[in-house]
Amino acid sequence: MKRTITALVNNTSGVLNRITGLFARRHYNIESITVGVTENPSISRMTFVVAADSMENVEQVIKQLNKQVDVLKVKDITDESIVARELALVKIVATPQQRGEVAALVNPFRATIIDVGRESMTIQITGDHTKVEAFIDLLRPYGIKEIARTGITAFNRSTKKPTHDPYRLTLIN
Amino acid sequence: MSTNVKKKEQQTSEEPKQLSGSSMLIEALAKEGVDVIFGYPGGAILPTYDEIYKTGIHHVLARHEQGAIHAAEGYARVSGKPGVCIVTSGPGATNVVTGIADAMIDSLPLVVITGQVATTVIGTDAFQEADMIGITMPITKHNYQVRSVEEFPRIIKEAFHIATTGRPGPVLIDLPKDVSLATGMFDYSKEVNIPGYQPTIVPNRLQIRKVVEAVTEAKKPVILAGAGVLHGKASSELFEYVEKMQIPVVNTLLGLGSFPGDHELCLGMAGMHGTYTANMAIYESDLLISIGARFDDRLTGNLAHFAPNARVVHIDIDPAEIGKNIKTEIPVVGDAKEAIRMLLDEEGKPGDTKEWLDTQKERKSEYPLWYKEDGEVIKPQNLIELIHEVTNGEAIVTTDVGQHQMWSAQFYRFNKPNRWVTSGGLGTMGFGFPAAIGAQFAEPETPVIAVIGDAGFQMTAQEMSILQELNMPVKIVIVNNASLGMVRQWQQLFHGERYSNSLFPIQPNFVKLAEAYDIKGMKIEQLSDLKGALEEMIAHPGPVLLDVRVAKEENVYPMIAPGKGQHQMEGVKPQ
């Protein structure tokens, strides 16, 4: 199972090394990791997506993270109402004739074409994991030359709404 | 030497003042009440050693950094105070890695200061540079590299705080040479404030009440007392609680001494070479109350068969230990002393346990630890019993890892806390002898016996220099079976008697080796000479090395073979 965990950590050198080292030596698998400074410049937020066998395993990860002196707060936010985003850059094969077609795909996803070459296009997409996956899937038939993806970054929503909102129809998350 | 430190404290004014990094360190050590430092000098740590020279702070020179760190561990284990170790960069620092890992897994408070090359050349593979922060990250509770002299006082204060509070552990400070030479403002009065480090000391009362209820409901309760009881100084509380509730007690290897070994409710040590009674008590229990133990694999055996019918209460100061190996029904996060006090306050009632207690009593007399005497050949178990006899069970006993460790654990019958110093989790050969030196510093008046195997002793034998230099009365008893005993035992049992590199037919002359360090050496081969020799050893005011030739092929029993459950012990009775 995949779990999304956020941690607030001291923004000092070596902290990332401490955390990833901990994951490695306890045999926890990190699917993605994103680090960036918060509104407080001395604190960074890390967002991990981890693959775990069981909830006990996830609990151990959180406890071990909490033991680190440089870790201030750890939370498994998977089941909470959260805002989560990731970004992907996708370079595809696109002949001049196909450019219009690709542009038509880009629009409903609110993605952006950020570079166009003679035989290729580079598109930037942001959104939650499923949206990015869906978009990349649509681009696949053109031939993907390169993909660069960030991990997800996330925190809790201001208003606690249920995770699955039945009225949310838009693709743009 | 402690008077020196006191004098120093009086001189130290509380006013902030300008100091060099190295004098900051010595001032701070004095303020932390450090009365002995174990260490070894070298290039990058020279400014600090200059301060040691000038201030006369008590420094013990080991002959190898590994000796220094194990001595610091022995000191910490017996005194309950942080052991302090100072070494240089590069090889000096890497030589203490084993000791740091050992202290980490056995929760010993250490503050280790390693020299480092100057900040200007860090990362350039400079002379004697090693990345100690990277190397020790997984084996320290926390580590620091001092980047500027201004932050040094705060770092030292935090290091002592982190090492000694919560679950104790080693903290490393990597001190670049230029930082130790630079001058900055020294202010040691600020309170420690570490937002990311707030150990839970007082347990949740609701959880405690659940424990009380579980105890009343239980018909077959057992307490597993680990080293956490010793670190939390909770032995007298445990004693009071056990007397009141009449719950039998099983010890972990490191928890020996937390409850009197001679008490009728003490079932002895559990685990691979524990007593049959202790292992079966856990196996059959309906309530297992673990206090300050971490369910190490050598204790549990095959997890599928560990306490299969028990509701598990796990009291631990480290929340990460709870649920790590064993599913826990009632977790209690907090200090052992606080937790047991709260249990006592709750006025709970014991359950209907008469039958259970009778079973334990019967088992204890039916399945005592055993060995077969063999004429004039000295049995190692007999040696340990005789050491107990000549020291009235009052000595501090230190060991390495292996057969001699297990026999000491089985046959010394520790009745008091902090008399047992052993490398449990890491299982470090070469630990016991230098740890004995540290223990002797912690308790100068108590006899300290290093019970060591002939193989392990050769790993840190050079520390006999410390005994020679200071005429310390540490007694070394070599349990000499001319082999790497436990390895030999496993090769015999599980590797078709192929004794690969475990037999040591050629040995140094240990008596002569001792004499080379001006230490009284004796070799004993006959059982009839043993007791007299031990008495002579204890009576001798200085250090003694006793080379005791024991039965070479003696195995440690009873035993839970690897992969087996705790109810599948072998060798529970003489064959």
TrEMBL record, chain A:
Alphabetized UniProt keyword annotations: Amino-acid biosynthesis, Branched-chain amino acid biosynthesis, Transferase
EC class: transferase
EC number assigned by the record: 2.2.1.6
Top-rank taxon: Bacteria
Keyword field contains Transferase: yes
Domain ACT: 4-79
MF (Gene Ontology): acetolactate synthase activity; acetolactate synthase regulator activity
CDD domains on file: ACT_AHAS
UniProt-listed InterPro entries: Acetalactate_synth_ssu, Acetolactate_synth/TF_NikR_C, Acetolactate_synth_ssu_C, ACT-like_dom_sf, ACT_dom, AHAS_ACT, AHAS_small-like_ACT
A Gene Ontology biological process term: L-valine biosynthetic process
GO cellular component terms, semicolon-separated: cytosol
Reaction(s) catalysed (UniProt annotation): 2 pyruvate + H(+) = (2S)-2-acetolactate + CO2
Family annotation (PANTHER family): ACETOLACTATE SYNTHASE SMALL SUBUNIT, ACETOLACTATE SYNTHASE SMALL SUBUNIT 1, CHLOROPLASTIC
UniProt subunit comment: Dimer of large and small chains.
Name of protein: Acetolactate synthase small subunit
Organism from which the protein derives: Halalkalibacter okhensis
